[in-house]
Amino acid sequence: MNKLNAGQKKGVQEFVAVTRTTNTNAIKYLKKFAWNLQAAVTDFLEHPPKSTASSSSGGGAFSESTLETFFQKYQSEETKKETATDKKEIDAEGIMRFFDDLGINPESDLVTLVLANKMNAQEMGKFTHEEFTSGMRQLQCDSMVKLKKKIPAMRQELVDSYAFKAVYEYAFRFSKEENQKALNLDTACAMWELLLKDKWSLLDKWCDFLNREHKKAISGDTWNQILDFSRAYNSSLFGYDAEGKDAAWPVLIDEFVEEQLEKLKEGMK
User: Fold this and answer.
1) Smallest Cα–Cα separation from 137: which of 80, 57, 70, 82?
2) Domain parsing of the chain, residue ranges
3) Residue 223: Cβ within 10 Å count
4) Mean pLDDT by 10 residues, the chain (269 residues)
5) What is the pTM of this model?
6) Which candidate, 47, 26, 64, 42, places its Cα nearest to that of 141?
7) Cα separation of 110 and 106, whole Å?
8) Could you tell me the CATH superfamily of domain 176-268?
9) Burial grade of 77 (CB within 10 A; 0-12, 13-18, 19 or more)
10) Calpha distance 133→177 (Å, rounded)
11) Residues in Cβ contact with 10 at an 8 Å cutoff, skipping those fewer than 6 apart
12) pLDDT reported for residue 55
């Protein structure tokens, strides 16, 4: 780390915050992609480093055969006869059993999104064999005992602002319908409720505005910008300058702010 410049050191810190890997792995992947953080993280999630590191509390070294048994415990009956791994999957019922055994409510606990992100799961209600096993390799978990001991670290990712941003942006891709570029408005508001209910006091007003005035699906750009906007204007919109420092926000946000400020003015009369 001492030979890295300030920007590279920051990149390593952010990479580790998202992936929970070592500095050595972070540097390896970042160098591979000329210090492009997004590309390096994506490659890490899709091709995690093979390791035989042991778990300090899970009962011995990580084992591929034990991981396969772990997967098979939740695998759908319909795919158990398949020989090709790309045909094997855990369906919605198996996922419910998986999270029940993990002691997590998938409908209200954000750890489910952290874990799905580590698997790079592409669809709700399904974990493919590749997704499940690659995520568990990254976590070095081949059993439920080991995975339960990773939950505190995954919760910590929700506290770290950069790591949370990665989970937030992943939630859009995970939640939208296959082959759709935008996210259904009802689904978007439900996901915002899950992700931002304790982080943004204007969330209810935002969703109410969208349901009355927008009535359309939410684009990826709008989804991503709302997190930044919620951090910039967490509880008050006073000081918002659509013609100046806030000119870069999309028109939809401008319209929301204008309406809310008008309501405040009316209430002061």
Assistant:
1) 70
2) 6-46, 54-157, 176-268
3) 21
4) 81 82 88 90 77 49 94 93 88 96 93 95 94 94 95 88 92 91 96 95 97 96 96 92 91 95 78
5) 0.76
6) 64
7) 8
8) Cullin, PONY binding domain (1.10.238.200)
9) exposed
10) 24
11) none
12) 40
176-268 has the same fold as 54-157: yes
What is the CATH topology of the domain spanning 54-157?
A: Recoverin; domain 1 (1.10.238)
